[in-house]
Amino acid sequence: MQDCSENLNPENILIHVCCAPCAAYCIEKLQQDGYTPAIYFYNPNIHPEAEYKKRLEELARFAECKDLPLHIEEDPTEIWLDLVKGLENEKEGGKRCKTCFDMRLEKTAQFAKQKGFDGFTTVLTVSPHKNSSLINKIGKDIAENISIKFLEENFKKQDGFKKSLELSEKYGFYRQSYCGCVYSIRF
After folding, report:
1. Around 10, how many Cα atoms within 13 Å sit in the side-chain half-sphere?
2. How far is the CA of 28 from the CAs of 1, 25, 31, 113, in angstroms?
3. What is the C-alpha separation between 161 and 155, in angstroms, rounded?
4. Long-range CB contacts (< 8 A, 24+ apart) of 83-89?
5. Nearest one of 9, 25, 6, 5 to 17, comparing CA atoms
6. pLDDT tens, position by position, 108-134
């Protein structure tokens, strides 16, 4: 089988982004590594609508500031709610999160392939609350299944999360206090 994590064209990568604070460091690192990423915002998991809009507004402001393309794909939140039905009481990091990662990375990979990107990656691994190994495994599996490359990263390494906090302060980003999922608000 083809190794889908290597030999990405540095000029042609789509990065799934959940919010500007997570994006800032990850995009900066990709650029330092020679990539010119395009941003993809697909997050039907983010609730309530006001939170979703705030995150998207902040990301749009960042994309404009950095002169980066921003692709927005929206699905009704009901699609996500139906997908995680029965997983509402899962602990943070459990089956509900895996299902959510699967959904968003699958959509990112499909969009990347449809639009001619050589590969994709995600900012989700910058969070100290997210399992980078699981996220990267999901990305690699999806990449293999649809024949596109996945750039495996653990953005929290080398103080990535700390750097994302510093960049958030520099840009004056709104920083949320939960992942976005209505069920994570209580944790």
Report:
1. 8
2. 32, 5, 5, 23
3. 7
4. 84/183, 88/183, 89/183
5. 25
6. 999 999 999 989 999 999 999 899 999
- Quote the strand ranges of the chain, DSSP E: 13-16, 37-41, 70-72, 119-122, 149-150
Instruction: Answer yes or no: are the C-beta atoms of 130 and 164 closer than 8 Å.
Output: no
List strands edge to edge, sheet with 119-122.
70-72, 37-41, 13-16, 119-122, 149-150
Distance CA 143, CA 154 (A): 17
Identify the CATH class of 13-171: alpha beta
Give pLDDT tens digits for 29-46.
999 999 989 999 999 999
